[in-house]
Amino acid sequence: MLGLLFDGTDPNMKRMLDQTRDDRIPRMVKMIALLNEAGIEVSMEDVEAVKPSGATLGRPHLADALVAKKFIASRDEAFKGLLNNDSQFYVSHMAPTPEVAIAQVRASGGVAVIAHPFASYRGEVLHSSSFQSLLQAGLNGIEVDHRDHSSSERATLRAIAEELNLVVTGSSDYHGTGKLNLLGENSTDPRQWERLESMANERRVVKL
After folding, report:
1. InterPro entries this protein is in (predicted)?
2. What sign for the dihedral angle of Cα 33, 36, 38, 41?
3. What's the whole-number mean pLDDT along residues 96-114?
4. Which fold would CATH assign to domain 2-8+96-198?
5. Which position has the higher pLDDT, 53 or 30?
6. Which of 4, 31, 42, 142 has its CA 20 to 30 A from that of 151?
7. What is the mean pLDDT of residues 61-67?
């Protein structure tokens, strides 16, 4: 779930984010242990060595550590295999349900967009029927233009967005050079962004 334009000082939002972040450490320890049991020698120190200062610990950093140790070639390979949601090495972590996350983002004055809902190679995808419950929770938009969506999936998502009067967004999903994604390879139409921004309780984007 993408939370945009919310008030970062909102205490309930901070509490939810803190809980989600703090649970990632024991989760990482468990994933590393599973990899070690399978003969893939990687450590928390290896992960910390590649994690940028201040970043929230996550699978991308474990992927980078595996790349550094030459077990895999890229983050993309990791998320298609070793670190995929269906992998034997995957460990879930505490996270709010999509509906709870949406409600909190909206309560904090922001807007909520569901991220790449049909990206099947990452694991479980969102079923078309699920959008109604997200809409009722306050969903504002759907990330349609994404490299992990086929042309037919994009067409289906655009139709859903039109039917439910949701904003259509696009994203490169760029998280640094560890992935194949190119910065700006997908973007959001300015008219769609203006519509999305108008749904927040305050204009928080600085325009140069």
Report:
1. PHP_domain (IPR052018), Pol/histidinol_Pase-like (IPR016195)
2. positive
3. 96
4. TIM Barrel (3.20.20)
5. 30
6. 4
7. 96
